Fold:
Amino acid sequence: MSRSGTAAQRQDEGGAPDRAHAAPDDGQPAGSPAAPASARVDWARIEADLDAHGCAVVRAALAPAQCAALASGYADAAQFRSRVLMQRHGFGKGEYQYYAYPLPPLVAQLRERMYGPLAAIANRWHAALGIDTRFPERHADYLARCHAAGQLRPTPLLLQYGAGDYNCLHQDLYGEHVFPLQAAFLLSRPGQDFAGGEFVLTEQRPRMQSRVEVVALEQGDAVIFPVALRPVNGARGLYRVNMRHGVSRLRSGTRHTLGIIFHDAQ
Structure:
């Protein structure tokens, strides 16, 4: 595992003032291959929000039953390859577990279906930033590139926070190959399951003070945001900004989040 930020690198969430909406999942339970996370999302709005704000929100991307089933799966150790206690590494307080291959069907499909539209955005961003790397249309082809470089371990993860827990600002870099966008899904109910624990995104701009965005999410919402860099058009032309994300202190309750990272880890 690697992590870059206040102490090192890992994952949680991000968002934007404008929201795209996913259709309901037609009653499919968690684990079903019918996940509403790509074709029914307004990707034009997602792209516009990412360009304008550095983050985007998809409302009701998962149904409540899917959220509950994913969160309850935290106790099933057989699904995961490793468990990390954040305080031991200076990452904050709380814990998370990385899923093992084969991923649960819903997690695998979210990752696969979201990748294609995000790869088009990622390629445009890399061109704007003068970065030569381009991303194939299919996630399987991108994973083959990661695996050939020794990045073999899956990175989707399930995070669990309790009262007093928080996640320090960080970036999720796991090796040479880094897909520049990631997503997270809030599985718990704000105001009912937990209080506090807001997602925080910071943007470090050249020769300017950092900009902070706090994003309010509801159960089932997905947030999409940069792993590290994004291009911004300013008065003097295009420049790059460095992004970090984290989670503020949970005041009470328990909060679960599903994190979807598209590159694998060394």
Notes: Residues 105-129 form the longest helix (25 residues). Residues 6-19, 23-38 have pLDDT under 50 and may be disordered.
